[in-house]
Fold:
Amino acid sequence: ENFPLTSSLNFEHPTNLALAQIEDRGDVKLSGVVINMIKCAVGAGSFSFPFAFTQTGIVGGIISLILFAVMAGYTMRLLADSEKRFVLEKCQSRLASFQAELDSVRIPRLTYPELMREAFPNAKIFGNNYMVGFLYAMIIFTSVGVSVAYVLFILSTLNHGFGWDTSYIILVITAPLLILALIQSFKLLKFTSILGDVAVVAGLVGTIAGGLAHRTLSWPTNIPAFNSSSDGSVPTGIATLCFMFTIHMLCLPMAQSLEGDLAHPKNFRKSVNISFTVIMLLNLAFTLICVCIFAEDSEGIMNPIVKNLSKGKALQAVRMLLCLDLLFTVPMVLAVGREIVEGSIFSAFGMRDVQLNLSSPDHLDYKGEKSVEDDVKVESTEPAIPWKQELTRVIVRACLVGLILTIAAGAVENSGVNQAFQDVVALIGGFSGSLLGFIIPPILYWRSNPNISVMEKAVFVTIVTIGWGLLGSTTYYTIKSMAHA
Structure:
């Protein structure tokens, strides 16, 4: 009678007693979350979309982009809601056991891997949760893959715009990438956020303005409405469009950064609706304008689209600005996967516990505290030896930077710098985008709320089926392209 919350918790309107039991770090206004989400989704991938439309056909590309934006926005909301449900279930258990007043430690919010563990607690082999391990592997794969794509964008843009040899470019960027990767806290790189905003805006506006300077805006006659070829170009183009939706691994950090996220869950849904509407319209407008401007070029629409531009001083500055932005972005993207690798190594060799701070994309640095990640948590049997940790970090980060540059160089050698960028973007978009964005979120939500309606089940099954279809077809044709089969 004294604890009415023990019978059920109102997910949409949890009481103050429930909220008091849960850790709340949210201090960002709704407008700030919207801006952050748009910044995550609009970038280097957007410059590949005009070429993707030549592969899918113009109408096919429009339909695909709109469909994926709607699906991705919906699954982002599902992912955030499932995390809240599992956290509130923990709160309900605490209140039911009358531990609320005895336990002063607040219930922490969940990361994507922790959410997977809550959804599949018994999926274990030799005591390790293989579903969590799978998700960790996917995050590492996506982190490294996106980093490789950004490096290839740099190589392609500088090679075409300035005539520099790709081997020379790799040699030049190796030291800066390694130095940036060794930075412990990205608070030191806050200025790059402004650089990134300026670079992307300059790139989008500069591409359109530079194109219109020597061309006219006209509907293309050499690109069909739908591409009916069976050479794999359609699924490859669709996979490129999916690249925009690899931001799901940052969904929970963005949701948890929102002020009053738990008390008012509809606010994050609103921020997603606004963000993905803007993302869809912005990319759609930019892509269609570029298709109408550059489709009649002698070499057709190139990938990325900035390669269609002339080499005037202003446009060269745009190219360089985009490359500098991506150079600073690579270590931040890599940090998401790198922390998992380092934490696993520290655990395996009995070093001091390290917290995988996957919940904070802006400050992906280590804290010398006990990890909240069970799979990498270890009770150290020896005193902390800082120099061992630092040496391990240096070696791991150097190896990862070397791996990224080696993969990029190998891709260029195998397919040429132009095709390599297209293949990597398509592979990451089709494989990681489908899994992290379309397949896993509906399953997690279903696990968090088994009492969903028949209509919701039908929608979930449809989205997951589309996700598997995208994953299979896009991955097959992309790998086939890489193998020159």
Observations:
- Strands lie at 124-125, 128-129.
- The radius of gyration is 23 Å.
- The chain is about 65% helix and 0% strand.
- The mean pLDDT is 84.
